[in-house]
Design a protein that fits this description.
heterodimer, A: 352 residues, alpha+beta, 2 domains, 4-stranded antiparallel sheet, 9 strands, globular, B: 84 residues, mainly alpha, F1FO ATP Synthase
């Protein structure tokens, strides 16, 4: 009986693939691969959840614009779906223009110009949602320590977070920064948990997750910029002396060709730049691979039952493997970003 | 004259795609070569001194992630060549 039910399960599963393949062939459904993949990786003015049949289900997000001609505007992005794409003179730029996908308006001579765009886009909305989630998680853990004087060690989730945070502080932050590590601990721990939570939420396919936050170079730029400020604004005198007039032979730092000071000066900018690109590229590449593997099923949908079923099995296996790998990458990238930031801060805090 | 015709053929045949894909393959090969060296040395070091296994594992993962960061610099350049 168990063997029959096992075979029945697989037969039912394959019959889904057969119906899908014949349906796709009849209706000549064409998959626009580029639009599918970039639609999931890029920012947008609405949060698209799914298409049921022909109906498109998405959450409209507020659009906040300031145009030099007509002043401030605030409206929901669902206005762009009515009235064939224009609303009060604003429209989303079509394919082929410089500002493809962004809101533009036309000035008196018909040229496209971009108004000041402070919209609450999908990435911004996701940053807010993940930020609120992070605040709720961390503050609920911190609350345990404030409420009544506990003698025993915490258990459960609070215990896990305590283990995690003390491991971070004792293994990364304290050894690399040295004596005044407590000044930088809030920033570094926030950095770690923010990047970790956003990486993980980027892997969840449905609503609150699924927005490509850390795979967006603007977000990683801001994170790297915060590290840049933490490294350089609080740098010690010895740090700046080591950049402008290091302890090397005179011919390497004297005015006609001050080789080492120039190299060190570029190093100030290249280190956070590498942090930014490393996080962005890892997460972006991971999301791209998962999307491509998932779309293998749809690409082969019109090619017949056998190929489609085979590709579906391959795609499912690879996707599951890649998702596990992406979980590991999410944690490792957060760890590396925090570790390198604290190492650079430690270098800048050296007293001699 | 011939060069002009050749250049036009190259652009029309989208050979930049060939360049981008071959570069991506070279990057994958280079990154895996570098990281395999780290893995080998980590295994050797753990075999020599099993008590240090945790420290060695941490160092290995950190070095692997740094090398992967550099390889993904190259992947970004390939993506840009492909789509822009």
């Amino acid at each position: 009986m168990q063997k029959i039910s096992r075979y029945l399960f697989f037969i039912v599963l394959f019959s889904f693939f057969a119906s899908q393949s014949s349906f796709a062939k009849e209706n000549k459904i064409d998959l626009d691969l580029k639009e599918f993949i970039f639609g999931h990786l890029e920012d947008s003015y609405e949060w698209h959840i799914t298409n049921i049949g022909d109906k498109r289900i998405s959450i409209p997000l507020p659009v906040i614009l300031h145009s030099k001609q007509t002043g401030w505007h605030l409206f929901l992005s669902s206005q762009f779906r009515k009235n064939n794409g224009t609303y009060k003179g604003f429209s989303i730029a079509p394919k082929g223009s410089n500002y493809e996908g962004k809101i533009i308006e036309y000035d008196a001579s018909g040229i496209e110009i971009r108004p000041l765009d402070l919209s609450f886009t999908k990435t911004a909305c996701s940053v807010f949602i993940n930020g609120i989630l992070l605040i709720v998680i961390i503050l609920s853990v911190a609350h345990w320590y404030k409420s009544s004087n506990h003698v025993e060690a915490p258990k459960g989730f609070v215990g896990f977070m305590e283990m995690f945070i003390t491991a971070l502080v004792n293994d990364i932050i304290k050894p690399t920064i040295g004596d005044n590590y407590r000044k930088f601990t809030p920033f570094l721990l926030t950095l770690f948990f923010f990047i970790l939570l956003n990486n993980i939420m980027g892997l969840i396919p449905i609503f609150p997750g699924g927005a490509n936050v850390t795979g967006n170079i603007s977000i990683t730029f801001v994170l790297a910029f915060c590290s840049f400020i933490a490294i350089n604004v609080f740098g010690s005198r010895a740090y700046w002396k080591g950049i402008i007039w290091p302890d090397v032979p005179i011919w390497m730092k004297a005015p006609p060709f001050p080789i080492l000071p120039i190299i060190e000066f570029f190093g100030i900018f290249i280190k956070p730049f590498a942090l930014m690109i490393r996080l962005f590229a890892n997460i972006f590449a991971g999301h791209t691979i998962i999307l491509v593997l998932s779309s293998l099923i749809f690409i082969t949908a019109t090619l017949g039952f056998a190929i489609n079923a085979g590709m579906a099995i391959v795609s499912i296996l690879f996707s599951v493997f890649m998702l596990f790998l992406e979980l590991l990458v999410a944690f490792i990238q957060a760890y590396i970003f925090t570790m390198l930031s604290s190492m650079f801060i430690g270098f800048a805090q050296e007293k001699k | 004259m011939l060069l002009l015709v050749l250049l036009q053929a190259v652009v029309k045949a989208e050979i930049y795609r060939l360049g981008a894909t071959i570069s991506a393959g070279i990057i994958a090969f280079a990154a895996s070569f570098g990281i395999s060296k780290i893995g080998t040395q980590a295994i050797n070091a753990t075999a020599r001194q099993p008590e240090a296994a945790n420290d060695i594992r941490t160092t290995m993962i950190v070095s692997a992630a740094l090398i992967e960061g550099v390889s993904l610099f190259g992947v970004i350049v390939c993506l840009m060549a492909f789509f822009f």
